[in-house]
């Protein structure tokens, strides 16, 4: 796909596009995408560029952007550099810093959706209540809050980091102050002068804590497991940087490639040889020593597992936030929440009038899995409960014909841009649909044995990874302890195996003679 930067003119609609412009319920579309986040928008742009206009994107919210639309908490920013964390087909010379903030990324996604004319293919405010495969008609039927839709092909781009995981702490429902999740930030909540409790110390919390520390009266950070934190090499781009990206031939592309390969190298330590993570551990310990002079606090902030086992966090402001006297780290477990306080296992009472739940997402048990019903009537959730989150190339699942997941099981990365993985999946999906059109294929369903072989290969590789051997528990592992989240290798290996739709791995039913 050729690239066009975001400063170019918007693409004008063609007459074919206009004829398929209706987003009315009851409509049949060749392709329906669930979710207008980064993955849904990428897929939609590809369909437009392939000249396929008969598709819709059903989006429950009122804007594109997914996780970047929802995570508006103070300090929200990406920890993958922006020149890499952007679509390859839509480079953005205007990034203002190396690690952009949420607002800038959300604006970028919105601009891409408008620039490539996929915004008008979205049905906003349309939540999918169920999607079921009808074998006789070889169609998906979707019941939504806006009525019924049908589709030949279903693309599940509903995201992995979208459903908040809420902690089940006794008494939390009796709390009389404000409680909200980091991904549902309550911007009406007054923080100035308040006693705030932040539960969790993951990627969201380490951004929230320094961002609110100076406003609040008291801040208690409830840590269950200490994270590893590395320096954040962030800088503001000058006007000259931006001009070079825009006008110097290949400059931005080279910059992106340099960042990509520097990140790619980290897959060695994460996925293949955990001992190679040691130098990063040394850097992180040195940072902790430099930024936390208090020995007892430093001990409590020191992780007890190998670096990389959980997501490595980047921050220059998290540890320094604890230098404020009113910012306290609490490492005793929370045993109970009462009307105006949290009580920890040592009996200490921590007064609070606001609780921020920075407690992550339902990744391996997404509620949407329970709304998608395959060929034998079982939901994706039931299938996953029985067999684990087995999936072929993070995209196709036996019993779910003509369905392609985006950011499905084992596509997660700890070292590189998820947009790279998304674009790889879009290649695969587009080649699958092109093959189906060319060969008059009615349905494709991945073979059970292809899926099982692929899963076995993944689990064999993952057994050596730092996520499995590093001595931590994390959301990368499902309730059976299997790692069904991370991709065990280089992202370019995933690009290679998704370059072409490998029809031999699928059962195929055709509409008639080719
Ligand atoms: P997370 O990484 O899952 O962290 C959740 C935190 O809450 C952990 O510290 C966890 O402790 C704690 N926790 C969960 N349940 C708890 C309970 N019942 N009691 C006490 N503590 C509890 O979630 P996140 O920080 O929202 O990040 C999720 C993912 O989103 C990241 O891994 C990353 O992929 C992405 N993200 C990226 C960025 C970025 O680019 N900068 C920013 C935010 C998020 P344990 O560790 O003990 O489980």
What does this structure look like?
The model is unreliable at 8-13 (pLDDT under 50). The longest helix has 21 residues, at 418-438. The protein is globular, with a radius of gyration of 23 Å. Strands 1, 2, 3, 4, 5, 6, 17 and 18 form an 8-stranded mixed sheet that branches. It has 16 helices and 20 strands. The chain starts with 14 loop residues before the first helix and ends with a strand. By secondary structure, the chain is α/β, with parallel strands linked by helices. Helices cover 30% and strands 18% of the residues. The structure holds NADP nicotinamide-adenine-dinucleotide phosphate. NADP nicotinamide-adenine-dinucleotide phosphate is lined by residues 77-79, 161, 167, 182, 199-205, 222, 224-225, 311, 334, 358-361, 475. NADP nicotinamide-adenine-dinucleotide phosphate (NAP) binds next to loops.
